[in-house]
Amino acid sequence: HLHSIAGASAVHRHFRSRVGADSVKPLDGVRILDLTRVLAGPFATMNLGDLGAEVIKVEKPGAGDDTRSWGPPFLGMESVYFLSVNRNKKSIAVNMKNPKGAKIIKELAAVCDVFVENYVPGKLAEMGLGYEDINKIAPHIVYCSITGYGQTGPKFQRAGYDSVAAAVSGLLHITGPQEGEPVRPGVAMTDLATGLYAYGAIMAGLLQRYKTGKGMHIDCNLLSSQVACLTYVASTYLNCKTESKRWGTAHASIVPYQAFKTKDGYIVVGAGNDQQFATVCKILNLPEISQDSRYKNNQQRVLNRKELTEILTARFLEKETTKWLELFEGSGVPYGPINSMQQVFSDPQVLHNGLVMEMDHPSVGKIAVPGPAVRYSQFEVSEPKPPPLVGQHTLDVLKDTLGYKDDALEELLSSGAIVQHERM
């Protein structure tokens, strides 16, 4: 495996000669042992799989990943939640509490480049699968742990759930209507941010290993990820000791920059500078407002937010969203409607950006999920493998990757250490 720069370039030469430079992906030849469940970890490993990594997802026999039961909605027996974040993975069903199962995980770790897990700290060590254990047999391993609060400290053994971490980190304190209750964002942004941090950290771990030949332990957690993402809200508190508050769709430091109700929906408009504000006034046919000294610059507009917002709100209510969109077209002012899912997936830019990825699933037929966000000039992120059934690849992986023979596999199957899905 890729234990050094020399190893990396050898793999590079191998793939160039085998398939031609244009179809080489950055993580071709990188093998990932994925012990994560739910969202943050699976989102990270799916993104790595999109870049060509071989992702071996280890699941509990029977139930598998927790999200397989999160529904409705289901397509056949498959939860739509699970399908959204598990493409480009192989599933093996292993009972890690069985010593034979734990042994298989160790054997796989020895031939993998990356080990990703999201167990409560100490849980895997009890099974002999903690970082210290794996590092002894695979010193090249990039071992990434994803937890709620980190590997040490006063809260390290608490379970990590998105909404709780979002609360503790202050995200819920700053999200919601101005005079209303705290609101959880519509998707689990704390989990997803942690998944993206883990994805970048694993890439950094691999690059570091190419330089030094050594693996490492990576500590990713929901709390640290979300606090890091507080950016300017945190900076305002840390430097000015100003407590933050909820702004609905508005912004603490820019006015106008929010959603306005129209005759039949909503439009979001932002004026990031005085020129843009003058353009907004022109489009709304409110020339006297742009001349008013109370609104002449952003600082004044923030101070006089209430009066200005009332005037703009009344005007936006006079026309339908589509009419306002026509009037703002080409103005140079940032604007857009608040779209429903139906509107999102019929938006011409969403379609142009190729954000819908279709696959043929082994038991439910054609499925569609949101595809990768990033495009690359040198290779295509295409031909995805559908999310696996629980244990769909157990025997394949043990035969092809570890060289197990049929009699040994039979013994493991009968002991319950492993399970193979009946559909192949």
UniProtKB/TrEMBL annotation:
Question: Which SUPFAM superfamilies does its entry note?
Answer: CoA-transferase family III (CaiB/BaiF)
Q: Where in the cell is it found?
A: Mitochondrion
Source superkingdom: Eukaryota
The EC number(s) this enzyme carries? 2.8.3.13
What's its job?
Answer: Coenzyme A (CoA) transferase that reversibly catalyzes the transfer of a CoA moiety from a dicarboxyl-CoA to a dicarboxylate in a metabolite recycling process. Displays preference for succinyl-CoA and glutarate-CoA as dicarboxyl-CoA donors and glutarate, succinate, adipate/hexanedioate, itaconate and 3-hydroxy-3-methylglutarate as dicarboxylate acceptors. Acts on intermediates or end products of lysine and tryptophan degradation pathway, in particular catalyzes succinyl-CoA-dependent reesterification of free glutarate into glutaryl-CoA to prevent renal excretion of glutarate.
- Whose protein is this, by species? Podarcis muralis
- Keywords on record: Acetylation, Mitochondrion, Transferase, Transit peptide
Q: What is its main location?
A: mitochondrion
Q: What sort of enzyme, by top EC class, is this? A: transferase
Q: Which GO terms describe its cellular component?
A: mitochondrion
The record's listing under InterPro entries reads: CoA-transferase_III_domain, CoA-Trfase_fam_III, CoA-Trfase_III_dom3_sf, CoA-Trfase_III_dom_1_sf
This enzyme catalyses: 3-hydroxy-3-methylglutarate + succinyl-CoA = (3S)-3-hydroxy-3-methylglutaryl-CoA + succinate; 3-hydroxy-3-methylglutarate + glutaryl-CoA = (3S)-3-hydroxy-3-methylglutaryl-CoA + glutarate; glutarate + succinyl-CoA = glutaryl-CoA + succinate; itaconate + glutaryl-CoA = itaconyl-CoA + glutarate
Q: Which GO terms describe its molecular function?
A: succinate-hydroxymethylglutarate CoA-transferase activity
Phylogenetic lineage: Eukaryota, Metazoa, Chordata, Craniata, Vertebrata
According to its UniProt record, which protein family does this protein belong to?
Answer: Belongs to the CoA-transferase III family.
Q: What protein name is recorded for this chain?
A: Succinyl-CoA:glutarate CoA-transferase
Coiled-coil positions: none
